[in-house]
Amino acid sequence: MSVAITLDFVLRQGDFTLELRERVDARVVALFGPSGSGKTSVLEAIAGLRTPARGVIRIGPRTLYSSEDRVHVPPHERNVGYVPQDLALFPHMNVRRNILYGVGSSQDDGQATTLDQILSLLELHPLLNRQVGDLSGGERQRVALARALSTSPLLLVLDEPLTGLDRGLRARVLPYLERIRDELSTPMVYVSHDESEVRALADWVVELDGGRASRSGPELGRS
User: Fold this and answer.
1) pLDDT digit string (tens) for 173-198?
2) The whole model's pTM is what?
3) Vertex 140, ends 137 and 142: CA angle to 5°?
Protein backbone atom coordinates (compact mmCIF):
# COMPACT_ATOMS: atom_id res chain seq x y z
CA MET A 1 0.00 0.00 0.00
CA SER A 2 1.43 3.35 -1.01
CA VAL A 3 1.09 6.48 1.09
CA ALA A 4 1.35 10.16 0.25
CA ILE A 5 4.45 11.58 1.93
CA THR A 6 5.15 15.32 2.04
CA LEU A 7 8.65 16.38 3.07
CA ASP A 8 8.69 20.10 2.37
CA PHE A 9 10.89 21.73 4.97
CA VAL A 10 14.13 23.49 5.84
CA LEU A 11 16.30 22.14 8.67
CA ARG A 12 19.47 23.87 9.87
CA GLN A 13 22.26 22.20 11.85
CA GLY A 14 25.14 24.59 12.42
CA ASP A 15 26.60 25.45 9.01
CA PHE A 16 24.60 22.70 7.28
CA THR A 17 21.19 23.37 5.75
CA LEU A 18 18.86 20.62 4.60
CA GLU A 19 16.14 21.76 2.21
CA LEU A 20 13.58 19.38 0.74
CA ARG A 21 10.60 19.95 -1.52
CA GLU A 22 9.28 16.42 -1.97
CA ARG A 23 5.73 15.14 -2.36
CA VAL A 24 5.71 11.43 -3.10
CA ASP A 25 3.10 8.66 -3.25
CA ALA A 26 4.96 5.38 -2.75
CA ARG A 27 5.30 2.19 -0.71
CA VAL A 28 9.04 2.59 -0.09
CA VAL A 29 10.92 5.86 -0.49
CA ALA A 30 14.70 5.45 -0.50
CA LEU A 31 17.02 8.27 0.50
CA PHE A 32 20.27 7.70 -1.33
CA GLY A 33 23.49 9.69 -1.39
CA PRO A 34 26.94 10.20 0.12
CA SER A 35 27.69 10.54 3.82
CA GLY A 36 26.84 13.99 5.11
CA SER A 37 24.16 14.64 2.51
CA GLY A 38 21.38 14.84 5.11
CA LYS A 39 19.74 11.41 4.88
CA THR A 40 19.67 10.65 8.62
CA SER A 41 18.52 14.20 9.36
CA VAL A 42 15.46 13.61 7.17
CA LEU A 43 14.56 10.51 9.18
CA GLU A 44 15.07 12.34 12.47
CA ALA A 45 12.84 15.17 11.29
CA ILE A 46 10.10 12.68 10.35
CA ALA A 47 10.44 10.97 13.75
CA GLY A 48 10.34 14.31 15.57
CA LEU A 49 13.90 14.12 16.88
CA ARG A 50 14.90 17.28 14.98
CA THR A 51 12.76 20.36 14.44
CA PRO A 52 12.78 22.13 11.06
CA ALA A 53 13.13 25.88 10.84
CA ARG A 54 10.01 25.95 8.68
CA GLY A 55 7.88 23.85 6.39
CA VAL A 56 5.62 20.83 6.61
CA ILE A 57 5.93 17.08 7.18
CA ARG A 58 2.83 15.06 6.34
CA ILE A 59 2.23 11.30 6.16
CA GLY A 60 -1.00 10.53 4.37
CA PRO A 61 -3.64 12.87 5.77
CA ARG A 62 -1.80 13.37 9.06
CA THR A 63 0.34 16.46 9.59
CA LEU A 64 3.29 15.78 11.88
CA TYR A 65 4.83 19.23 11.55
CA SER A 66 3.70 22.53 10.07
CA SER A 67 5.32 25.84 10.89
CA GLU A 68 2.45 27.73 9.26
CA ASP A 69 -0.26 25.91 11.23
CA ARG A 70 1.89 25.67 14.37
CA VAL A 71 1.68 21.89 14.45
CA HIS A 72 4.51 19.96 16.09
CA VAL A 73 3.45 16.47 17.12
CA PRO A 74 5.85 15.15 19.81
CA PRO A 75 7.90 12.06 18.88
CA HIS A 76 5.98 9.63 21.11
CA GLU A 77 2.68 10.62 19.47
CA ARG A 78 3.78 10.42 15.83
CA ASN A 79 3.35 6.65 15.49
CA VAL A 80 6.54 6.43 13.44
CA GLY A 81 8.56 3.23 13.81
CA TYR A 82 12.22 4.31 13.81
CA VAL A 83 15.09 1.83 13.44
CA PRO A 84 18.36 3.79 13.93
CA GLN A 85 21.77 2.60 12.79
CA ASP A 86 22.73 1.41 16.27
CA LEU A 87 19.37 -0.47 16.62
CA ALA A 88 19.03 0.77 20.26
CA LEU A 89 18.14 -2.66 21.64
CA PHE A 90 18.20 -3.10 25.42
CA PRO A 91 20.98 -5.54 26.38
CA HIS A 92 19.43 -6.32 29.78
CA MET A 93 16.19 -7.52 28.16
CA ASN A 94 15.54 -10.68 26.21
CA VAL A 95 14.10 -10.65 22.70
CA ARG A 96 10.48 -10.82 23.87
CA ARG A 97 10.82 -7.85 26.23
CA ASN A 98 12.67 -5.80 23.62
CA ILE A 99 9.89 -6.33 21.11
CA LEU A 100 7.11 -5.60 23.58
CA TYR A 101 8.79 -2.48 24.96
CA GLY A 102 6.53 0.48 24.40
CA VAL A 103 3.55 -1.58 23.22
CA GLY A 104 1.91 -1.43 26.64
CA SER A 105 0.49 -4.14 28.83
CA SER A 106 -2.99 -4.06 27.33
CA GLN A 107 -3.49 -5.33 23.80
CA ASP A 108 -6.74 -6.04 22.05
CA ASP A 109 -7.17 -9.17 19.95
CA GLY A 110 -6.31 -7.33 16.75
CA GLN A 111 -3.02 -6.08 18.16
CA ALA A 112 -2.12 -9.54 19.44
CA THR A 113 -2.86 -11.04 16.03
CA THR A 114 -0.73 -8.42 14.32
CA LEU A 115 2.18 -9.04 16.70
CA ASP A 116 1.99 -12.77 16.08
CA GLN A 117 2.00 -12.05 12.34
CA ILE A 118 5.12 -9.91 12.74
CA LEU A 119 6.91 -12.60 14.75
CA SER A 120 6.00 -15.21 12.14
CA LEU A 121 6.98 -13.01 9.21
CA LEU A 122 10.39 -12.24 10.76
CA GLU A 123 10.79 -15.83 12.03
CA LEU A 124 11.37 -14.71 15.62
CA HIS A 125 9.28 -17.17 17.65
CA PRO A 126 12.31 -19.44 18.33
CA LEU A 127 14.35 -16.46 19.59
CA LEU A 128 11.90 -14.88 22.05
CA ASN A 129 13.69 -16.08 25.20
CA ARG A 130 17.21 -15.39 23.93
CA GLN A 131 19.33 -12.54 25.30
CA VAL A 132 20.28 -9.77 22.90
CA GLY A 133 23.99 -10.41 23.46
CA ASP A 134 23.57 -13.96 22.17
CA LEU A 135 22.10 -12.90 18.82
CA SER A 136 23.83 -12.59 15.48
CA GLY A 137 23.84 -9.31 13.59
CA GLY A 138 21.02 -10.43 11.33
CA GLU A 139 18.93 -11.61 14.27
CA ARG A 140 19.37 -8.27 16.02
CA GLN A 141 18.20 -6.48 12.89
CA ARG A 142 15.06 -8.62 12.81
CA VAL A 143 14.37 -7.91 16.50
CA ALA A 144 14.75 -4.16 15.92
CA LEU A 145 12.36 -4.38 12.98
CA ALA A 146 9.82 -6.31 15.05
CA ARG A 147 9.98 -3.77 17.87
CA ALA A 148 9.42 -0.90 15.44
CA LEU A 149 6.50 -2.73 13.81
CA SER A 150 4.88 -3.87 17.07
CA THR A 151 2.95 -0.61 17.50
CA SER A 152 1.46 -0.79 13.98
CA PRO A 153 3.24 2.38 12.88
CA LEU A 154 1.92 4.86 10.36
CA LEU A 155 5.37 4.77 8.75
CA LEU A 156 8.57 2.77 9.23
CA VAL A 157 11.83 4.72 8.89
CA LEU A 158 15.05 2.75 8.57
CA ASP A 159 18.55 4.21 8.80
CA GLU A 160 20.87 1.91 6.83
CA PRO A 161 19.50 -1.24 8.50
CA LEU A 162 21.90 -3.56 6.68
CA THR A 163 25.07 -1.56 7.32
CA GLY A 164 27.63 -3.57 9.28
CA LEU A 165 26.34 -6.92 8.02
CA ASP A 166 28.50 -8.99 5.72
CA ARG A 167 27.25 -9.81 2.24
CA GLY A 168 25.80 -13.15 3.29
CA LEU A 169 23.81 -11.66 6.19
CA ARG A 170 22.58 -8.81 3.99
CA ALA A 171 21.28 -11.33 1.49
CA ARG A 172 19.40 -13.12 4.28
CA VAL A 173 17.90 -10.01 5.91
CA LEU A 174 16.84 -8.18 2.72
CA PRO A 175 13.97 -10.61 1.99
CA TYR A 176 12.49 -9.82 5.42
CA LEU A 177 12.33 -6.14 4.44
CA GLU A 178 10.64 -7.12 1.19
CA ARG A 179 8.09 -9.18 3.16
CA ILE A 180 7.36 -6.20 5.45
CA ARG A 181 6.71 -4.13 2.32
CA ASP A 182 4.58 -6.74 0.57
CA GLU A 183 2.81 -8.68 3.35
CA LEU A 184 2.32 -6.04 6.04
CA SER A 185 1.90 -3.19 3.54
CA THR A 186 3.83 -0.93 5.92
CA PRO A 187 5.13 2.17 4.08
CA MET A 188 8.82 2.90 4.58
CA VAL A 189 11.40 5.64 4.22
CA TYR A 190 14.69 3.84 3.82
CA VAL A 191 18.23 5.22 3.97
CA SER A 192 20.97 3.31 2.19
CA HIS A 193 24.33 3.68 0.47
CA ASP A 194 23.82 0.41 -1.38
CA GLU A 195 22.38 0.60 -4.89
CA SER A 196 21.30 -3.07 -4.92
CA GLU A 197 19.23 -2.57 -1.74
CA VAL A 198 17.59 0.52 -3.17
CA ARG A 199 16.73 -1.18 -6.43
CA ALA A 200 15.30 -4.21 -4.60
CA LEU A 201 13.13 -2.29 -2.15
CA ALA A 202 12.20 1.18 -3.31
CA ASP A 203 9.60 2.38 -5.76
CA TRP A 204 10.74 6.00 -5.37
CA VAL A 205 14.27 7.30 -4.85
CA VAL A 206 15.38 10.70 -3.61
CA GLU A 207 19.08 11.24 -4.21
CA LEU A 208 20.54 13.76 -1.78
CA ASP A 209 23.70 15.79 -2.17
CA GLY A 210 24.74 18.61 0.15
CA GLY A 211 21.34 18.86 1.79
CA ARG A 212 19.39 19.11 -1.48
CA ALA A 213 17.62 16.61 -3.69
CA SER A 214 19.79 16.25 -6.78
CA ARG A 215 17.28 13.84 -8.29
CA SER A 216 13.90 12.38 -7.41
CA GLY A 217 12.10 9.65 -9.31
CA PRO A 218 10.99 6.04 -9.56
CA GLU A 219 14.44 4.72 -10.48
CA LEU A 220 17.95 5.22 -9.17
CA GLY A 221 19.92 7.57 -11.41
CA ARG A 222 22.82 6.17 -13.36
CA SER A 223 26.07 8.02 -13.82
Assistant:
1) 899 899 999 988 889 999 998 888 89
2) 0.89
3) 115
